[in-house]
Amino acid sequence: PPRRAVGAEALGRAGDEDAAPGGAAVAEGELRPEDVEDAVANEVTSLVTAKAPKGVVVTDSASSSCCDSSSATSGLRVLCDQFGSRLLLLLFATQHVMKGFTSSFIAPAVPYMYKSYNVPAPRQQIFSGVTQLPWAMKPIIGLISDAVPICGYHKAPYMVAATFLGVGAVATIGLVGHDTLSVTNFVICIFLLQLQMSTCDLLVEAKYAERMRSKPAYGPALMTFVWFGLNAGGLVATAFAGPVLARFGNRSVFLISVPLLASVLMPLMRNYLEETPRSAEELSATWKQLSEQKEACYLCLLMFAGTCVLTVLGIVWESVWLNAVAAITVAIIMLVSFSVVLRPVIAKVNAFFLIQTSVGFSISGAAFYFYTDDDKMFKDGPHFSKEFFVSVIGIVSAICSLVGVYTYQQYASDWTYRKLLFWTNIVASVLSMSDVIFFKRWNKVVGIPDEFFVLGSSVCLAVVAQWMWMPGVVILSQLCPPGMEATMYALLAGCHNLGNTISSNCGAWVLSLLKCEPSGAIDEGHQFDNLWVASCLSTVMPALTLLLLPLLIPDAKQTDSLLDEGDRDAMSGSLLRRW
């Protein structure tokens, strides 16, 4: 779709893919999110910046052999020796199977399900924004799991409960027909699925962060294991999703995913998390530490309240205007609150990415119908098949994203944040104008087939998007004071994820104003007359935020430290403290 992984949208996704777990520390001897101390944040930084701790090369001889690409089996054996097979199986079930494969397998089926319900494009975008909100709830999920253990356990019970909700929701979609399952109930089911993924992702991140901290020399190897499985699972899922959708129908994807999602229960029931019940003294220590971080808890609760408001409005009220106004209001409240509570350097960076994310109006709902409507719906459309739209474009984009990662490490990892964000946004905006050409059908005028044109633009944008995504991950990790990495990372990433929903709601309003409301109806070609205008807005608006770069983004290299050594206070010098 237009703005494919461009601008702060990509950074928002990076937030929920790579954010350290939220929450607060607990008693001595047990690592919880507040006590991560660079385990995740610094490993992410070292993996994505080749000039940081010399890439991912580990000086220890055993870990060097683990990272040797010619001995993958030996590398796995070393990981098993250092971290145990239980942790690797847990990561395989939650990260590789659930988050890597299943998420990428289900995602393409969701817009086709909306199309089968004839949901208008603006309404589809509001629904899509609602179903992504569980990723913005990570901070409050971490906070609750810290403060309210169940039977003394603070991870497994929440993961089991979320898994039962997700599995039940996906099974309902696969087994219940249109006549019984309304589109509102379908949205609720997808919301519950995302809640399972965000909850399991968060709490498992806390676990492997704990293990990496205990053996830091093997941290890059473990992160490589996680990331490789995520990417490999996603690539395989993308390859199969298109043919499965085309041959067996939309609901088949959900039925196939039920046992895959349920597989998370096996390592949880066998306590592969290796949890022990917490004592009353440990719980008391947790509550004491939470009371010392009132500002962070306030932001967690505020973000949760905002996501709840947008969720209820998006599901219950059909008014596009009302949902857009609510989204803008929530954005303003979050922007002001984070700016008042956090120290200036953190608040400014957060403000830039939240603003850029929010004004990058998403028009993916209308673009989906433009790409996939058949000849009876849109005679002059590209009429992309499910195999091409889902699998071919997806695989090409994924491969080019890897090229983007490699070229970034080779050529851009020592650029300053301002320079990299400025030029990548400019290039991405220029490339995104190709969507205008496509929506106006000018490519046909000059004789360029639709498939070649879309693949060409996807290749370029995928590479540039990685160049924009990588420094976002790095700058977030650099802005997390020691002792608060997890909570701050989750809060900042959650704020950006919330921005994606705001972008989706505001984009829906733009589509409604432009009378661009396709729904998969017969002869709806006139609904796309102004789609190119919406595409221009979604491209130009994020580019205008570059005017804020000198004010909000530090003029520092990606390998520079943005906080003073030993500075553990994320609120130092904030407007709240000054008042």
Brief write-up:
This protein is mostly helical. The protein has helices at 8-18, 41-48, 61-67, 72-83, 85-106, 109-116, 121-131, 138-147, 156-175, 183-214, 219-248, 250-262, 265-269, 280-291, 294-316, 320-341, 344-359, 364-372, 386-412, 417-432, 434-439, 442-445, 450-478, 485-513, 531-544, 549-552, 575-578.
What does this structure look like?
It is a single chain. By secondary structure, the chain is mostly helical. Helices cover 70% and strands 0% of the residues. It contains 27 helices and no strands. Helix 5 runs antiparallel to helix 10, helix 11 runs antiparallel to helix 12 and helix 20 packs antiparallel against helix 23.
Mean pLDDT: 82
Mind describing the biggest β-sheet?
A: none
Count of individual helical segments:
27
Estimate the helix proportion, in percent: 55-70%
Residue windows where pLDDT falls under 50 for at least 5 positions:
1-70
Shape: globular
Q: What's the alpha carbon Rg, rounded to whole Å?
A: 23 Å
Order of helices and strands: HHHHHHHHHHHHHHHHHHHHHHHHHHH
| Residue share in β-strands | under 5%
What structural class do helix, strand and pairing data support?
mainly alpha
Number of strands: 0
Distance between the termini: 45 Å
Element layout with pairings:
Blueprint: H1 8-18, H2 41-48, H3 61-67, H4 72-83, H5 85-106, H6 109-116, H7 121-131, H8 138-147, H9 156-175, H10 183-214, H11 219-248, H12 250-262, H13 265-269, H14 280-291, H15 294-316, H16 320-341, H17 344-359, H18 364-372, H19 386-412, H20 417-432, H21 434-439, H22 442-445, H23 450-478, H24 485-513, H25 531-544, H26 549-552, H27 575-578
Helix pairs in contact: 1-17, 1-23, 1-24, 2-11, 2-23, 3-4, 4-5, 5-10, 5-11, 5-12, 6-12, 7-10, 7-15, 7-18, 7-24, 9-10, 9-12, 11-12, 11-19, 15-16, 15-24, 16-17, 16-24, 17-24, 17-25, 19-23, 20-23, 20-25
